[in-house]
Amino acid sequence: MFSKACEYGIKATVHICIRSQQHERVSLKNIAEKIDSPIAFTAKILQSLAKNDIINSSKGAKGGYEMSEDNFNKITLLDIVKAIDGDNIYNGCGLGYKNCNAKKPCPMHFQFKSIRDDLKKMLETTTLQELADDINEGTSFLVR
Amino acid sequence: MFSKACEYGIKATVHICIRSQQHERVSLKNIAEKIDSPIAFTAKILQSLAKNDIINSSKGAKGGYEMSEDNFNKITLLDIVKAIDGDNIYNGCGLGYKNCNAKKPCPMHFQFKSIRDDLKKMLETTTLQELADDINEGTSFLVR
DNA sequence: ACAAACTCGGATAAATTTATCCGATATAGA
DNA sequence: TCTATATCGGATAAATTTATCCGAGTTTGT
């Protein structure tokens, strides 16, 4: 469904959000350990999340990544997915046609559209804060 | 969403179904031209569809691919997707965890599950016959 | 029996995604 | 100012997906 880069990006952002709620900055090393991801690859993903203003990064000693409090309930899964995988997964045609629309639909168009719309809606209504809170409450689990 | 191999596989099967409704066998070359796919790559995909009993292949002169009439309304999109991409897209965890379930859910688990279930339901209730009929009626389009 | 028209399947190659390495640069603290 | 600790970012490598090539085998029709 999502690329590995995107999976890592979501996990990382959730972890950063949780720690930022506790006013703690986290290092790349810490993140990669927590979410069990390759460290250097994770660095690239975090860079791109930072460039997209989803997280903030600080260089140097005591540096690391954090999320601004304002962003807790502003950033959604959609922001992350869009930044890493682009919008193809919830906007693109199921058969890969570039010119597929209601006027000239591919055979799967209408069946697919409602699923894509649901997916998009889910992504854009799920905030990082919700995800973090669930984990804090023990309702869901990031680390296995 | 789906791999390119899977997209080609769906398009090819729909085309084969349409021609089989007209009692015509189609060659690899004809299929690849119609669905605008790389011919040799398409051959591999057709081989795997044939091995999964979704289509039948015949070697030699006048050979090619066809679908048995019985299969028109038996084969669904799910059969094709399962044969080519596996079941991960509608069964797998959104964050890639292998041990993600209602008892130990990942942060996206429940939001995702309903979408995956919808996707699976759509795939397993859409038959090749329906797709072919829509095209025959001019309601949808395979060739652009 | 032979030739033409096909698919099969193994070996490669190209493209993309995932992953690693490392020097450059920035920051905190002694 | 110096050192330890971080991220940044460019180069490279490994793995996977996509795509190509071609000889072998099969079938039809002559």
From TrEMBL, chains A, B:
Classification via Gene3D superfamilies: Winged helix-like DNA-binding domain superfamily/Winged helix DNA-binding domain (1.10.10.10)
TM region(s), chain numbering: none
InterPro entries the record matches: Tscrpt_reg_Rrf2, WH-like_DNA-bd_sf, WH_DNA-bd_sf
Record-linked Pfam families: Rrf2 (PF02082)
GO molecular function: DNA-binding transcription factor activity
GO CC term (a single one): cytosol
Protein known as: Transcriptional regulator
Species the sequence originates in: Portibacter lacus
Upper taxonomic lineage: Bacteria, Pseudomonadati, Bacteroidota, Saprospiria, Saprospirales
